[in-house]
């Protein structure tokens, strides 16, 4: 069986030729136009970037290399071999990189390859231990990823004059090393910030997700299943979202994958993006506390009341709305299915269910958001809480570990295809005024 790297090496020439022909045949044709609203409105839906690994449809949601989440759950290998279990993220990585559903043997090779690459450079652990306890875990993660960069094969090869045709290889090395090292980095941040600073023991018979859980200090097989699903569904959401786009943009300067991913993680750390998963849990806990103090139960009526208080104070409802999606996020739906299977009677899950009944109506009445339905961040926190993972300030770090799988897979193809520096055009308000004098 060919290794992942050999499989990719074999794919590159055909892929390069495909893009070359596409440019020759269609390079000067128009695929989109831009309105002034889009120019000042965050470039919503402007088609101006290619992304190999996934595509987002406003109504159907995400497809990874053409596969929906339920299809991934059906087709990707599982840890137990039981098809009803959750997919292994190692298999997803193979799919994101190669476009092909891997066999069990190929997935086992990736699990081993990641384990073999997982040792951190010596200075990283003391650095993480030196962080002030009050530093946000996402800030710690971004700094730690930058600290790993001393080991960048891409940076070393570039400095030594490596030819452009070899960039993919160094990007592959860095990306795999980085994905392999993220669990220990994240677990160190977690154990130092919230616990005794001691990592749990890994087991070579276990997979990436279960070993991540062991290092974090969790030993439940059901939580291992959740971590596998969690990493899989958080990996990629096409190219225009802020963390993916930031990684792609930074990488387009031939910054190495460490510098690029750190940039993406900084984007993920914003409350309108990945930090929303922390905010959602905070919102639910506030809701519980507020109505306990008011001597009322949490039900449809009090949730509606609390939602309006949030909206009337000028804040957003975290976990609802989306820049692209116009229906319930399938990443939400699969987490709901997980809860129905593993924790149907959990109190917080019941609250999330009730919020789901109420919130689309409230947001529709509020009349601002284009999408009144829940996104991925609306559900993830209550699942983690169920397994005793209560430190919600840490949740976006888990999103970041997952997101690395998608954005680094794309970064590999950015370099293999020789995609250029990203440099869109900006204009001044004066330019716009002048333009409309004649248009
Ligand atoms: N609660 C209240 N108002 C909301 C809202 C929400 N959940 N979602 C959107 N709106 C408001 C916007 O703030 C905007 O108001 P203004 O006109 O006053 O600026 C208006 O509705 C129109 O926004 P939109 O076009 O529907 O949404 P955007 O593409 O601009 O923004 C997003 C998308 C996700 C930032 C927004 O829906 C939001 O803030 N949601 C809450 C935060 C959240 O859950 N983020 C996580 C998204 C998933 C992820 O990346 O992890």
UniProtKB/TrEMBL annotation:
GO terms for biological process: carbohydrate metabolic process; citrate metabolic process; tricarboxylic acid cycle. Signal peptide: none annotated. The keyword Transferase applies. The active site is at residues 273, 322, 377. InterPro entries: Citrate_synth-like_lrg_a-sub, Citrate_synth-like_sm_a-sub, Citrate_synthase, Citrate_synthase_AS, Citrate_synthase_euk, Citrate_synthase_sf. One of its GO terms (molecular function) is acyltransferase activity, acyl groups converted into alkyl on transfer. It comes from the Eukaryota. The keyword Transferase applies. Keywords: Transferase. GO terms for cellular component: mitochondrial matrix. Belongs to the citrate synthase family. This is Citrate synthase. It comes from Diacronema lutheri. The lineage of its organism: Eukaryota, Haptista, Haptophyta, Pavlovophyceae, Pavlovales.
